[in-house]
Amino acid sequence: MSNTEHLLAVIEPNEAGEVSLDIATDHVSRGGTATVLVLLDEQARDDLRRFADSEDLPLHNGQAIALDRLVDSYTTRVGGETNTIVAESAGSARELLEVAATSRATSMVIPQHVAARRSLRRLVSTTTIPLHIATAA
């Protein structure tokens, strides 16, 4: 695999949503690069609020610390030359996916339950780069 192959791995911070990480890890281990796009759903935002409360931190500070830890864990797990981006809303996720699909990403992997969402169906069906729909084991 040449270093010019770049995978966009879309995930959510939950068991079913992290299925793309294994594919990204394999891709990077074979010499490619990856961008991990983390989509924050309502459950993830609730978890961030709970973390801030449990640490007795102002909401903004607690969320920032938790997101930093999450990003670090994904970047480390995938390894190699990996970037991690967090999208906090469906609109920003759609915009980031469109940019990634038309820029340096040469392929994309997305969890099946995310690909089925109304807000992403059109993008998934019209992307011009190879797309893998990952299913949870």
Molecular structure report:
51% of the residues lie in helices and 20% in strands. The longest helix has 20 residues, at 59-78. The protein has 6 helices and 5 strands; from the N terminus they run βαβααβαβααβ. α2 (42-54) crosses α3 (59-78). The mean pLDDT is 86. It has a 5-stranded parallel beta sheet with strand order 3-2-1-4-5, with helices on both faces. It is globular, with a radius of gyration of 15 Å. With 137 residues, it is of the alpha/beta class.
Output the helix-strand order.
EHEHHEHEHHE
Q: What's the pLDDT, averaged over the residues? A: 86
Share of residues in strands = 15-25%
Please summarize the sheet with the most strands: 5 strands, parallel
The rounded Rg comes to 15 Å
Query: Regions with pLDDT < 50 over 5+ consecutive residues?
Result: none
| Number of E-state strands | 5
Terminus-to-terminus distance: 26 Å
Structural class: alpha/beta
Q: Could you say which overall geometry the principal axes of the C-alpha atoms support? A: globular
What percent of the residues sit in helical stretches (DSSP H or I)?
A: 40-55%
